[in-house]
Amino acid sequence: MSCGEPHETDCSEVLDHLYEYLDKEMPPSDCEKFQEHFDECSPCLEKYGLEEAVKKLVKRCCGQDDVPTDLRAKVMGRIELIQSGEQVPQTPLLPEGAAPHPA
């Protein structure tokens, strides 16, 4: 995604690190660069707004549930594979028919 305009921080870099920005897991100097990018790039700002809304919804709906340790490890492993550019297996994270949390 890109608006087609040149930016000091490239759209792909912003989108690759969007969750680090949302989770406040980056240095303040990088946060400032990202905020400047959002101020001038409406497609990235729209993506940021959508991801922020999803994050808030998930927190509101599922924020009280404990995540099973093995599921968390599987999810973190897949995130690491994706970030490294490796092939991600198409196996489900939960056993077939299992609910992600008690209903």
TrEMBL record:
**Domain Putative zinc-finger residues, every copy:** 11-44
Taxonomic source organism? Streptomyces polyrhachis
The record, for InterPro entries, names:
Anit_sigma_mycothiol_RsrA, Znf_put
| Protein name, per record | Mycothiol system anti-sigma-R factor
